[in-house]
Amino acid sequence: QIPSRLPLLLTHEGVLLPGSTMRTSVDSPRNMQLVRSRLLKGTSLRSTIIGVIPNTSDPTSDCDDLPSLHRIGTAALAVQVVGSNWPKPHYTLLVTGLCRFQILQLLKEKPYPVAEVEQLDRLEQFTNQHKSEEELGELSEQFYKYAVQLVEMLDMSVPAVAKLRRLLDNLPREALPDILTSIIRTSNQEKLQILDAVRLEERFKMTIPLLVRQIEGLKLLQKTRKPKQDDDKRVVAIRPNRRINHIPSTTEDEEEEEDHDDVVMLEKKIRTSSMSEQALKVCLKEIKRLKKMPQSMPEYALTRNYLELMVELPWNKSTKDRLEIRAARILLDNDHYAMEKLKKRVLEYLAVRQLKNNLKGPILCFVGPPGVGKTSVGRSIAKTLGREFHRIALGGVCDQSDIRGHRRTYVGSMPGRIINGLKTVGVNNPVFLLDEVDKLGKSLQGDPAAALLEVLDPEQNHSFTDHYLNVAFDLSQVLFIATANTTATIPPALLDRMEIIQVPGYTQEEKIEIAHRHLIPKQLEQHGLTPQQIQIPQVTTLDIISRYTREAGVRSLDRKLGAICRAVAVKVAEGQHKETKPDRAEAGEGEDCKEHVTEDAKPESISDTADLALPPEMPILIDFHALKDILGPPLYEMEVSERLSQPGVAIGLAWTPLGGEIMFVEASRMDGEGQLTLTGQLGDVMKESAHLAISWLRSNAKRYQLTNASGSFDLLDNTDIHLHFPAGAVTKDGPSAGVTIVTCLASLFSGRLVCSDVAMTGEITLRGLVLPVGGIKDKVLAAHRAGLKRIIIPQRNEKDLEEIAVNVRQDLMFVMASCLDEVLNAAFDGGFAVKPRVERLNSKL
Ligand code: ADP
């Protein structure tokens, strides 16, 4: 039902029919006035309904007088008004026709005409009154057939055509003549006739010839096109050339259309995505630019990639935490053997999280040698929380845009690793493991550690701005965990944001347990083996640990086990394995095991054993011989006692980021001018320790009865000393070798051997005091690994021993030394002769 008074829009080109849409330019004063006061000011839907009167003579010519009006017009809804100032002020109006009307009386002419009108057609009317009429039924049927025929001649893959086809079936037949007339090629005059055909029957009659004409035209066109299609194929083949010549072809147009569709899809995705308001604004602006940009512009692809990333980012998507401390404890215990301190702290952390549902707190940083399970604990934490896990390797990263992304102005710019990680996991609350934060570099491209500060600070990271995105992204839901080998190289500001949890190396016993509980089952599964096919007794594991690996973690142990599994897998797959019967005792019982002779890889041994009573095929028992076969001769022998068979050698303990290690210090003397030579890539502190040691020994030579080769107490008289620290290729530094150097030189000048099972560590002073050093736990474990029995440590390090597992402590004897006298006494069998001193040294430190 349209209003009975309608403002009139007078058009002079184009005829609007009910059911169709038309874009018309408005520039005459009357029409402009109508748009301004009616459409732009109006607020209700009714005020946007106007009457469109076609075929008015050009209104620009006569300004004042209203031209004669066509009696019949179309009531229309103004859908869109776009204003512009160029080349002259005008509006472009998008109107949709609703129904016909007839002007009854003109009510006013200025500033724009308003008329009293009568609505001419009404849909219900048709359906009720005319449907039954025989003739009309036939007419409409005929019309419908033509319409379908016409549509089917068009290309159905074009979305508009497919839509039209659907419309044909869904719309009431009565509405079709108007709609089709406005679609097919017709002149304004013809359209006007259709508009004037108020009676439906008349309208059908008039439209049918138009349809037929269009169908015939199409047929003709298709006939002429057919041979041309072959041409098209040829054209496709040489298309690159055409591109160069910029000759537009139909296929290119289609492509463009397709791309346009993509952009529309993208826009839809942007609108439906849950990005922040700020981001949405930026995206909409970009998509507007994208629409105007030719595709060939390099920026087109850039902008598109950007928008696609923005749509993909998990702005609002998160997984639900399921955290139950008891279950978390069980899961951690199941996944990891030992590392009690670490597990305890992690559980505390999780418990606090459960109680206080937010993440504001220190970032956990696991520090320890490689292969001790730092990464895998991180993974377990993600598992207990039910969160996604993502590892970001920071080793060697020396460009801050790696963290924060490049600005989009750069060619090949991309977002930083944090945003990339979020895109990969697809949720905004994953567990991010920042691996190897101690190996961040620094370069001209800025300091990545500084960029990380913002990421890790809970006060700031809710609005982390990646340079590429250029809008803030909320990182506050992300759980960050860091790992490092040493805290020494982590920038202090970064260190300040983190809580350090030391993860020390494992003892041999722990390694055996880890191997049997975790590593071996995992390797068997990876290689498709079962415990019925391969058996690795504990003594073999111990052999692997002590003779084939020397590490704080279990990574190379894992690799060796992998090598064994591979070798066995070959045997199993070949199915030609034979095994001699075990002589006696059960597998896995101490040294006896060495007597089990498994098959040798050599074919002769197979034929040898084939004669014996047929042995059981499976399981293949890995004993020392098999081990030698698979892994080759042992890499590390227990060489300690051999190396100490002459004076001038002592064993020190060193700490490295890879765990503790034992270190031999060798000294020799020769005729010369009292020079000290140091080799083995020593740092300054270590060189100074050597000078300290020599000075102290020279000043105490008499007391200890130390002489040079010619029997003089002046140790450097006619004597050169050379100190060497294997392995020569590894840089060493630190004060803790002091006591070892003293012991080594004391042995050299006294000609006595240092006990072969003693290792030591401690800093010295010029007055002969022994000062505490760091890394005691790792050092003790290293000595234990190497099979040493007695360890000399500074008195003030006694408290550190509590951290060491009881079974390791039981195997070792600790000597606490507070001065060098005590060190020397403990290092040599039967003590070191000292002439009684008059006064004792007292430290006032
Ligand atoms: P890191 O990150 O400390 O260098 P990883 O986490 O990569 O070491 O650990 C190496 C391997 O050792 C992993 O396969 C892990 O499962 C295993 N592993 C280390 N420690 C343990 C442990 N305590 N219990 C079970 N497996 C362990």
Helix content: 40-55%
CATH class descriptor name of the largest domain: Alpha Beta
What does the radius of gyration come to? 45 Å
Give the ligands present: adenosine-5'-diphosphate
CATH architecture of the largest domain: 2-Layer Sandwich
- The unreliable regions are 228-250, 577-615
* Mean of all residue-level pLDDT scores: 80
What does this structure look like?
- By secondary structure, the chain is α/β, with parallel strands linked by helices.
- It has 5 domains: 5-119, Archaeosine Trna-guanine Transglycosylase, Chain: A, domain 4; 153-220, no CATH class; 325-411 and 427-502, Rossmann fold; 506-572 and 616-637, Helicase, Ruva Protein, domain 3, CATH 1.10.8.60; 640-827, Ribosomal Protein S5, domain 2 (2-Layer Sandwich).
- It is 43% helix and 16% strand.
- It has 30 helices and 24 strands.
- The strands form 7 sheets. A 5-stranded mixed β-barrel has the order 1-3-4-5-6.
- Strand 5 (90-108) and strand 6 form a beta hairpin.
- The protein is elongated and about 140 Å long.
- It starts with a strand and ends in an 18-residue tail after the last helix.
- Mean pLDDT is 80; it is low at 228-250 and 577-615.
- Adenosine-5'-diphosphate is lined by residues 336-339, 370-376, 483, 514, 518, 553-555, 558.
